[in-house]
Each structure stands twice: as structure tokens, then as C-alpha cells.
Amino acid sequence: MNPARLPLRQRLLLTVLLPVTLLVVAMAGLFLQRGERMTQDAIIERGVAIVSFFAPAAEYGVISGNAGILDGLLQALVAQPDVAAVALYERGGELIASHGEARLLDPARVKAVRQPSRLEQRDGRKGFAAPVISVPLVVDEIGGQETAGVPLPVGWVYVELDTSELDAEWQATMLSTLGLAFVTLVFAALLATRLANQVGHPVARLVDAVRHMAAGDLDVQVPDQAASEELRELQQGFNSMARAIGSAHKLMQAKIDEATARLAHQALHDPLTALPNRRAFEQALEEMVVASRRADDRGALCFIDLDRFKVVNDTAGHAAGDALLRKVADLIRQRLRAEDIVCRIGGDEFAMILRGCTSADAYRIANGLCEAVHELRFVWEGSEFRIGASIGFAIIDGTMESVAEVLHAADHACYVVKRQGRGRVMEYQPELPASSAG
Q1: What is the rounded distance in angstroms from the CA atom of residue 212 to the CA atom of residue 237?
Q2: 72 or 288, greater pLDDT
Q3: Which of 37, 94, 253, 383 is the most buried (most CB within 10 A)?
Q4: Is 357 helix (H, G, I), strand (E, B) or coil?
Q5: Beta pairing partners, 98
Q6: What's the CA gap between 83 and 159, in Å, rounded?
Q7: Assign residue 274 a region: left if phi > 0, alpha if psi is -120 to 50, beta otherwise?
Q8: What are phi and psi of 246, to 5 degrees?
Q9: What is the rounded distance in angstroms from the CA atom of residue 78 to the CA atom of residue 70?
Q10: How many helices (H) and strands (E) does the chain have?
Q11: Distances (CA, A) of 254 to 3, 33, 159, 263, 319
């Protein structure tokens, strides 16, 4: 039928209803396409973030092979929302720890990755992997020479996310969007004749809003100030659809941000003692050394090496050793000032960064801690153990130009204490010849 022969009323109806239908279909399609892309990108971003934070957090456990630490890391990770399975591989490619049922795991592809990557997705699952990289800093205790190895993987981490819940949420959002689009179309069809003379400017605003949505602006709204009540209803329907998509995205983003924040904390803290780990220690020491050069901010670095700790591990087992380390960590934390930092940097090694203190202040704090550790009575299954602490410290006052110099100085002082009888505190003396350290 020729549209020119239609009565004017029907021609106006066709003129108004056709573009409105196309507009609503375009809006719904763009909403669904954009929402699907953002949902998948958010899931991939979260998966990459998880393996990115999990890989450095697992570094010590992979290198040491400590089953307790590895199991704790895996349990903490599996407790995260949507994490269905995790696995750890050592340098030679052998599986050393796993948790959960991995449906997409391909060990060959995992061991081939050199950066955090998404590997596979199907059946409501997505797999991600990342290498565990170790770049050890080796400081010669006598000569102070520093070397850094080529970064090589010491293992790999694999994480598999169960996206079925997010997929279900997206399907519900999609159905709601389609339902709202259908209702909007029905409503537009009923009122098309009354909108024929007033649809121009409101439709233009809606098209502009759709373009903003396609560009990623999920908070876009159109003013519901049309001259007719019907157009205001259409604008409100659009705003409801936009809010539904925006709310779903914000909810998913909030969950991702919360999980990412938890993983970021875990990546910088020792899972056994909850103290900052070696990575956090290196960052804090770098800041302290820079501050000492620029603002004349004095401080001290103390290395703490526990004496006779191996006896506890060999006699009572690793569970007792872990309990003792937690007890010592609490003891050190309680004796420090608010501005000081204590970190666990190795098996039975701790480091303290004391801010704004002189040599005498550092010696007093370290000596008090040394005495407190000496007086500690650790009882495990009816047996009592006593340990000690050897502490070496170096003053950070701007005279040392690099973090490596400060590390070497404190480590050298601690080494001298261990060689000369243990259980004491010693400050690094530059004029002390290396031969005196044995």
C-alpha cells in the first residue's frame, strides 16, 4: 500500500511510531551490547587483578615450599566471591597445591604465560594464569656488592572464576531491559497520534542520551520536561532503563573493587603474622631513604634474627614454629611506636623501620625488644621453649645514598652479632673491618 494514500491520521501515526520503534530497539540493543561488553570486561579485569595480586603473594610459599602458607593462601583466595578453583605450579611445572575443581585447566597453557592473562572461557567459567616472578636482591655480607638476577618464573598461579552468578544477574538485567523496551513500545503505539506534532525535540534528546550511553556514560538521564504528558512518560521510561543498567554496572564494579582491595592488602602482608611482607618493607625503606636525603629525616633500620628458632621447628613441628612466629610478631608490634613499621622479611627474620630517632633511641628500642624476646616463655604441648634475638641496626640519615647500602649495613651488623655471641644489639660501624665479622 502506498503511504501517500493513507489517511492523514494513519500517516501521522506511521511517521511517529516508526522512528520511535527504531529508537527503542536501538536503545535496547545498545544497552544490551554495552552492558554485555562491560560485564565481560569487568570479569576479565577482576580475573587478571586476582592472578596479578596472587602471584606475588604466593612467591614466598612457592620458593619455600611451605605447605601451611600455600594452603592458607589458597583457602583465602577460594573464599573470594566467584573463585571456583586455584592451582599453583613450581618452576619445573609440577603441581604443588590446588583447591577446588578446575574445569578449564590446561597445564601446558598455564606454564606458557609470561604475564597475567586470560586463558579460556566456557560453560560459565573463565580461567586466568600468571607467572610467579622472583627477582632476588643478593647483598654480599663482606664486600657489599649488589647483584640482581634476570626475572624468571619460579612458578605459576592459575585461578578459575565461576561467572554463572554474574551471568544470571546479566540475564535478569537483559530481560528487564527487554521488558521495559516492550512496554515502552506498546505505550508509544497507544500514544503515537498525540505525539506526532511534539516528538522532534524529545527524540533528539533521547538520541543524544543513547550516544552518551554507547560512549560509556551510564549515569546519563534526559529531562522529563516535555510539553505533553505522554512524552514525559517516554522520557521517564528511558531514564528507568538507564538507571537499571547503571545500577547493575555499579553493583558489579563495587564487588570487583572490594575483592581487588582485599587482594591488594594480601599482596603486601604476610599471611601467617599479618605483618607487612618483604614487598611492603622494600617500599617503606625506599621512602625512608628518599626522605632522609631530601628532608633530613632521620631513622633507623633494624634486622632481627631469632636465635634457636630452628630448635622449636625441629622439636615441636612447623605448627609450633608458626604459633611462635605469630607470638613474636605480636610482641614486636606492641613495643613499637605508632610511626614505626615492623615487617616479616623471611622465615624467622623481621625488620623494623624506626622513624625520627637517633642512634641512642634505636639502641634503646632494639635492646628492649631483645630483652623481651629473651624473657619470652613459649609453651607447646607441655614443653617450654626459650629463644633469643640478635639485632643489627643502621642509622638512616642521608649519608647512605641507596637502599642497598642501608640493607647491607643493617645486615652486616646483624651478622657480626650472630658471629660474636647472639642475643645482643649492635649498630653498624663503617670503620669496622670485615675481618672482625669472622
Answers
A1: 17
A2: 288
A3: 253
A4: coil
A5: 87
A6: 7
A7: left
A8: -60, -40
A9: 12
A10: 12, 14
A11: 52, 21, 21, 14, 37
Q: Which is nearest to 208 in space by CA: 179, 235, 248?
A: 235
**Cβ neighbours around 88 below 10 Å, total:** 23
Residue 222: enclosing H or E segment and its boundaries?
none
CB atoms within 10 A of CB 176: 15
The label of the residue with cell 610467579 reads 132
In three-state secondary structure terms, 122 is strand
Single-letter amino acid, residue 104: L
Longest dimension (CA), the chain: 110
Q: What is the mean pLDDT of residues 181-209?
A: 68
Best CA proximity match to 269, nearest among 354, 341, 343, 335: 343
- What pairing do the DSSP bridges indicate for beta strands 117-122 and 125-134? antiparallel
What does the block give as the cell for 1? 500500500
Mean of all residue pLDDT scores within the chain: 81
> Which run of H or of E encompasses 315?
helix 309-316
Percent of the chain with pLDDT over 90: 28
The set of cell numbers assigned to 329 is 610478631
According to DSSP, the residues that pair with 125 across neighbouring strands are 122, 162
Contact by Cβ (8 Å): 348, 294 = no
Residues in the chain: 438
DSSP 8-state class, residue 276: B
User: Which has more confidence, 190 or 378?
Assistant: 378
Phi-psi region of 136 (alpha: psi -120 to 50; beta: other; left: phi over 0): beta
Q: What is the pTM of this model?
A: 0.46
